[in-house]
Amino acid sequence: MIINSIGVWLAYLACAHQNLSLTGIATKTLGEFFGKIYTAIPILITIFFILPRVSSATHEMAVLPLSPNIPLWITLAIFFLLSFYVAYTRATVIDKLGKILAPVLMLFVVILVIKGIATPLSVPKSPGSLNALSDGMLNAYNTMNAIAALLFGGWVLHELNIRNIKSKEDQNINLNVIGFSTAVLLGITSTALVYLGASSGSSFPDAPIGVLSTKIAQGLLGQIGLFSFAVIMALSCLTTAAAIISMAGDMFSEMTNGKLKYRVTVTLSTIIGFTLGLVGLSRIVKYTVPWLVLLYPSIIIIILSALYYEFDKIRKSVTVGVIVALFFGLGDMLSFYGLTSNFITKIASQLPLGGQGLGWFLPTIIIMGIAQLIFKPKIEEGKSS
Description:
Layout: H1 2-18, H2 22-30, H3 32-63, H4 72-88, H5 93-118, H6 132-140, H7 145-162, H8 168-200, H9 209-255, H10 262-277, H11 281-306, H12 315-336, H13 343-349, H14 361-384
Helix pairs in contact: 1-7, 1-8, 1-11, 2-3, 3-4, 3-9, 3-10, 3-11, 4-9, 4-10, 5-8, 5-9, 7-8, 7-9, 9-10, 11-12, 12-13, 12-14
């Protein structure tokens, strides 16, 4: 959880150091055409997979425990109408999220966590994972936090421009503060919730993961706990959906130089989210993960590389690194579609950290280093001529 939170902070730092959104960093690395395609993929993932996922989760984990007879389409209709209302007017999105939804959400989280720490339902019984670090990093793929942070870094940059904070120095300070604050709060909240699961989960050994959270909340606070968890779940999903819809509007407007209007993207994203949300949570998760594992290695390379202020000096080696990381990500993606013995995963499994699913990391870094040595003389020649 802590490493995952640090990753979020690093993603914001990457945007701050380059003073660019993911679109800007990707086009700088891969060229305008491929850079925009690369950026469009995670944005489309958030629209086609994450939006219906959070809306379905709201129904299954917040609405059904309280009102089991309410049909899915009613929950989705209300959910996306509220998301559309929050996201439709770009200038007021942050105010609606920050002044209304987020404080209420945090209040209920704090109440539940304090009660769980003060009077836990039981004590942790499991010794935990023997590969906690790698398991945590791999499971973090599914949260999409680092990808989301890199996308939302650009969204925050646009927000700063709207608020007439336009100097690079002021924007860097704001992005650093926002990124660090987000990482700290995410780390504290995630750690606290993990503690609740560890200290209370053994009381419900047969409960599925989706039901376990509800059981713990109800066990801690009775019906009030059940209601509290429903509010936490609904508000967290609603803030996520509204932010995704708004971010997509910003990013596609930037990518098309204003030809695709913000409100058009907001409207289309809302309709797509509602339609696909009817598919159901379990199917959505099944289709989401392969695309995340395809992109995640290359996103990590972009984040780490963009932390270097003089990015132009390493741009070509970063391009090579992204291509190599996508190659290894493709192997993981194919594994999710049943091709577990594909030659890419066979290669990765024999490499250092391959047993932990991180076989892509060292070869990617080494190849980037070789590429930098190859391209560096050309950069110096260009300067001297």
